[in-house]
Specification:
Chain A is mainly beta. Chain A has no helices and eleven strands.
Chain lengths: 118, 111
């Protein structure tokens, strides 16, 4: 059972370009979360998505950032007109969120995409 | 604003000793609690999840939850150099909400 997949693992962009980060959840998982981690800092929540729905985007910057999780295909985090401050590691996590007795909501993380903006 | 607080460390523990990592959270209604380990340059990996008050043991790891005190801890017995990492405490309010992470505690196991 493959884990959470993210690509690319490393991405270099010049200021003003667009960055597109992809995340494929674990098989059977329909919930995806995106986090940003600056060097020597903790994980900051960005957005929580289910298939075709944004559940919580309270951590997303109001401009330039968007996310989607289509019915088919990976979840995509898109950063338009990147700036140097966008340089960070972006992690995706997925969960199955079963409910009831024995419920589980554990998130499993992908390897991350390290974005460098020149 | 829901918050999760951890001492950033570094916490230095001799090899073979017990390492104790602590975490407090602000939202009394929180339901799910997690400990992740993150090596430098790597992604977080789950160590333990705990949902009920009390202790939960898994090998050398024990998670402790006290909802009345809004406190969750992780004990690592017989600490090994390979345990040196940053440990992230994470809290989820409900099944439909995001997980909030603490900033992490850096643990260093000295030989």
């Amino acid at each position: 059972n493959a884990g959470v997949m993210q690509n690319p693992r490393h991405l270099v962009r010049r200021r003003g370009q667009e960055a597109r980060l992809r995340c494929s959840p674990m098989k059977g998982h329909s919930h995806v979360y995106w986090y940003r981690q600056l060097p020597e800092e903790g994980l900051k929540f960005m957005v929580y998505l289910q298939k075709e729905n944004i559940i919580d985007e309270s951590g997303m910057p109001k401009e330039r950032f968007s996310a989607e999780f289509p019915k088919e295909g990976p979840s995509i985090l898109r950063i338009q007109q990147v700036v140097r401050g966008d340089s960070a590691a972006y992690f995706c996590a997925s969960s199955s969120l079963t409910s009831g007795a024995g419920s589980t909501d554990t998130q499993y993380f992908g390897p991350g995409t390290r974005l460098t903006v020149l | 604003q829901k918050e999760v607080e951890q001492n950033s460390g570094p916490l230095s523990v001799p090899e073979g000793a017990i390492a104790s990592l602590n975490c407090t959270y602000s939202d009394r209604g929180s339901q799910s609690f997690f400990w992740y380990r993150q090596y430098s340059g790597k992604s977080p990996e789950l160590i333990m999840s705990i949902y009920s008050n009390g202790d939960k043991e898994d090998g050398r790891f024990t998670a402790q939850l006290n909802k009345a005190s809004q406190y969750v801890s992780l004990l690592i017995r017989d600490s090994q150099p390979s345990d040196s990492a940053t440990y992230l405490c994470a809290v989820r309010y409900s099944s439909a909400s995001k997980i909030i992470f603490g900033s992490g505690t850096r643990l260093s196991i000295r030989p």
